[in-house]
Amino acid sequence: MLYFCSMNEDEYYFTDSHTHLYAGQFDSDRAEVVQRCLDNRVRKLVLPNEDYLSIAPLRSMLSYYKGMCYGAMGLHPTSVNDGYKHEMELIGEELFNGGVGYVAVGEIGMDLYWDTTYMDFQKTVLREQFAWSLLLKLPVIIHSRNSESVVLDILDESGFQDVRGIFHCWSGTIDETIRAMRHENFYFGVGGICTYKNSKIPSFFEFLDLNRVVLETDSPYLPPVPYRGQRNESSYIPLIANKLSEITGVSVATVADITNENAKRIFGI
After folding, report:
1. What is the pLDDT of residues 172-194, one digit of tens each?
2. Which of 5, 57, 98, 229 has fewest C-beta within 10 Å?
3. Helices 148-155, 119-136: crossing angle, 10 deg rounding
4. Cβ–Cβ < 8 Å for 203, 174
């Protein structure tokens, strides 16, 4: 695959398409973290919601860092439990009437890694949030830990063919990845895991190219090497871009340019 970089090599910047900088882990040094982002050319941040309690700190960041931070609103699958109906009412009210101008429905999806107790509820919530995305013409940000095939099965259901968005922190098998690629309106979020010694992500690039990729940190989780085991932050995006440059054989500036354009195309930012 040949890639073309439209920017001057000295002018490139990065977009973190998935970060939780509103989380409590950053309460003591959030301003410093944001400054480190700017110092490392990370100029756009997309902040997906988790549950009702995270709405207020998320909104605060969107207000304080206008033009840099963009929000997504949804119910995270690990927050789905017996009280999901009330939680969905509150999150739906914020998404439709909050007045913030969210750029995506997220973080949504399935998570069968920790617990399968609420699997059926997770499916119900996912379908409802897919419907929200279609109604509002917004992309989705999909979490699919240990549930890639289940998520793809739901995407293949009648009525959801026009859903578009990002497979966040994708870690499916080769067969699941090929199947996911058939959803041409979806991109793949690549984060710090690609820098891990036993990561299978580099093997995906035998058939996946940068035109289907966005950069992400998922901070404060899943930091890249050499920060593995520590708190992650969005200023580490260049480490992920460097690894993708190594995998694909193109410059870091080209990685930045292509993934920025993909993020613009998805989120309209």
Report:
1. 999 999 999 999 999 999 999 99
2. 229
3. 40
4. yes
Question: Cα angle vertex 111, ends 155, 45, to 5°?
Answer: 80
- Name the residue among 132, 133, 168, 174 with its Cα closest to residue 151: 168
Q: What is the pTM of this model?
A: 0.95
- In this predicted model, what pLDDT tens digit does every residue of 241-250 receive, in sequence order? 999 999 999 9
**DSSP per-residue string spanning 167-236:** ETT----HHHHHHHHT-TTEEEEE-GGGGSTT-SHHHHTTT--GGGEEE---TTSSPPTTSTTS---GGG
Q: Any alpha helices (H) in 13-118, and if so which ranges?
A: 30-39, 55-64, 84-97
Contact 202, 247 (CB under 8 A): yes
Nearest to 154 by CA among 131, 137, 170, 135: 131
Residue type, 68: M
Q: Which residue has the tokens 């899943």?
A: 222
Instruction: Look at residue 24 and tell me whether its pLDDT is greater than 90.
Output: yes
Q: Which of 12, 1, 6, 70 is nearest to 253 (CA)?
A: 12
CA 41 vs. chain centroid, Å, equals 19
What is the rounded end-to-end Cα distance, in angstroms, of the chain?
26
Question: SS3 for 68?
Answer: coil
Pair 107, 140: CB distance under 8 Å: no
CA distance linking residue 161 with residue 73, whole number of Å: 21
**Contact by Cβ (8 Å): 195, 224:** yes
In whole angstroms, what separates CA 19 from the centre of its chain? 7
